[in-house]
Every structure is written in C-alpha cells, then in structure tokens.
Amino acid sequence: MVKQFFIHPTAIIDEETSIGTNSKVWHFSHISSHTSIGNDCSIGQNVYIGNYVKIGNGVKIQNNVSVYEGVELEDYVFCGPSMVFTNDLTPRSKYPKGRQAYLKTLVKFGATIGANSTIVCGHTIGRWSMIGAGAVVTKDVPDYTLVVGNPARFKGYVCECGLVLNESLTCINCKRQYRKNMNSIERI
Question: Measured between alpha carbons, how far is 70 from 89 in angstroms, rounded to an integer?
C-alpha cells in the first residue's frame, strides 16, 4: 500500500501512529505513539505531539508548537507559531503524577489559537473562537468569542471567516449574521 501523506526525513514518527491522506509533517517534528492525525493536516517544523493526542481533519499546526497528551483538536483548528498546551496544573519534577492525572483540553471545530499563546489544561476552546497572540487562557472560551491578554479576557465576537463582528453581529466582509445565545452567539 502506498502512503498518501508526506513525512520529512528529519521527522520522527513513533509506532502505532495514524496519519491521514494528504497530511504533511515537516522538519524536526516528533509525533508520539498512539496519536491520530486526520486528513489534509499540516504539522510545521519542530512540532511535538504527545502520546494519545487526537487531531481532526484540516488542522494546521505552525512551527514550534507542543501539543501534549490530553489535548484533542477537532477539524480545522489553527495553532499559531510557538503556542503551547499544558496538561498538568501543578507539575513537580520530583513528584510526577503520570498520564492518569492529566487534565483534558478540547479545541473545537474551526478555532484559532494565536502565536505564543498558552492554553492552560482542563478547558474547552469553543467553535470558531479566536485566541489572540500571546494570550494565556485560564478558563473556557465560548463559541465565536475573541479573547486577548493575560489572563485572556473577552474582547468581542468573531465571524467564521475570522473578522471581528460589528455591534449588530453582522460580518462586514462575508455578511454572515449571528444572534445572542446564552453566554455566546450562534450563526443565523
């Protein structure tokens, strides 16, 4: 059977790893065992993906990103350069807890995480949300929400196309419209 994905010769792919059709793994990246990478993904240079990580279709992980065990990325997630996930709230070198203590982090469909951001474990990043560059996420982020800063805080709502929505929750670019729904918005 012919492999239908690209692995750069300097990348390390551990055993029992699944990589989907048309996906690419670039220079000096390390994909750990029991990891699943979907179709049409791009794993940039010097990326580390831990054991048992699940990555959906169409995901783009830019250079120097670490995706640790306990993280799941749904379809079409974008991880900007040098952003990082955590998986332990109280790590100690002398007292490791092991994988059973890792907190889960879910990044939902279409979310964008900006360059140099940190996602503290145990939280959910909502559908089509956007995390500004350098933000430190310490709580859940609702769907279509833009957060910035340290700690990350609400800055507005964003369209599926990526632009910040106006006060009437209409995108000036693609004309998609949204309405309030509980603590977030939804597309009309």
Answer: 12
**Predicted confidence band at 173 (pLDDT cuts at 50, 70, 90)?**
very high
Contact 64, 81 (CB under 8 A): yes
* Phi, psi torsion values for 101, nearest 5 degrees: -95, -5
Neighbours of 144 (CB within 10 A): 25
pLDDT at 1 over 70: no
Residue 34 backbone phi and psi in degrees, to 5: 65, 25
Q: Which has more confidence, 183 or 63?
A: 63
Identify the CA nearest to 55 among candidates 82, 88, 30, 77: 77
- Rg of the Cα atoms in the chain: 17
The pTM (predicted TM-score) of the whole model is 0.96
What is the signed CA dihedral for 31, 131, 73, 3, rounded to 10 degrees? -50
Name residue 123's amino acid: H
3-state secondary structure of 174: coil
